[in-house]
Amino acid sequence: MRILLIGYGKMGKTIEQIALQKGHELAGIIDIQNRDSLKEYNHTNTDVAIEFTHPESAPENIKYCLQHGIPVVSGSTGWMQHFEEIKDLCRQNNGSFFYASNYSVGVNLFFHFNEYIATKMQAYEGFHVEIKEVHHTQKVDKPSGTAITTAEGLLNNYPAKNKWVSDAAAPGPQELNIISERYADVVGLHTVKYTSEHDTIELTHNAHSRIGFAEGAVMAAEWLPGKKGIYGMKDLLNL
Ligand SMILES: NC(=O)c1ccc[n+]([C@@H]2O[C@H](COP(=O)([O-])OP(=O)(O)OC[C@H]3O[C@@H](n4cnc5c(N)ncnc54)[C@H](O)[C@@H]3O)[C@@H](O)[C@H]2O)c1
């Protein structure tokens, strides 16, 4: 497959490595220095684009692909306020769009187990629940997209909480607090923690490298072309 890489930072470079290992070719590489070259790409020279850039550039990059018939897999986080607009544009253009805040298969199993645990834990009022996420210091958004997806999965199955809050000093009784910490070289660590007076139950996912994300993104790019609509990891993994 001819893959257009949009964003050639830590993730773009890891995705290139995995895509070439799997026998794909690169239609091109776009980063901030040559962003004007994006207009050279369309459905005649590109089978699929993989977009990992920045919260501010992701919506424009995705729009370009949808308007030019390029199926697009995006992993950029921190731009969810534009998500409905992108979904509408995808439908209007009969396009193919795949989004995941986290492409790791392990994290998506973590999402699934988190939802299951919430359905069981919601009956026990003696437990206090919170989420913690830890990432490298260059991460620009907070909380992480993965932590937000984790929070949404929990909120949908845990009626005692009705919204998530970020780093609240004193969260309200119905608020689910997401604590964010930043340290050098942490790829991504997420924990859902239920604590009672007597014990603690924790579910943790700890990413050891970016390869898990890149493999999931390439898997999504292989799966998406030919499918019309908006998809995510639950569709890809049949969860
Ligand atoms: N969904 C996932 O599984 C997952 C995993 C890791 C990171 N991420 C997210 O992916 C994004 C990128 O992460 P990263 O670690 O590679 O970051 P990075 O900072 O290493 O790389 C981002 C790259 O995008 C480029 N860029 C910025 N604006 C651009 C534009 N308009 N057009 C083209 N390129 C542009 C930058 O120059 C940089 O090279 C972030 O939003 C991050 O949170 C998602």
UniProtKB/TrEMBL annotation:
Catalytic activity: (S)-2,3,4,5-tetrahydrodipicolinate + NADP(+) + H2O = (2S,4S)-4-hydroxy-2,3,4,5-tetrahydrodipicolinate + NADPH + H(+); (S)-2,3,4,5-tetrahydrodipicolinate + NAD(+) + H2O = (2S,4S)-4-hydroxy-2,3,4,5-tetrahydrodipicolinate + NADH + H(+)
GO annotation terms (biological process): diaminopimelate biosynthetic process; lysine biosynthetic process via diaminopimelate
UniProt binding sites for (S)-2,3,4,5-tetrahydrodipicolinate: H136, G145, T146
Keywords: Amino-acid biosynthesis, Cytoplasm, Diaminopimelate biosynthesis, Lysine biosynthesis, NAD, NADP, Oxidoreductase
The protein's assembly and partners: Homotetramer.
NCBIfam families according to UniProt: dapB (TIGR00036)
Protein name: 4-hydroxy-tetrahydrodipicolinate reductase
Gene label: dapB
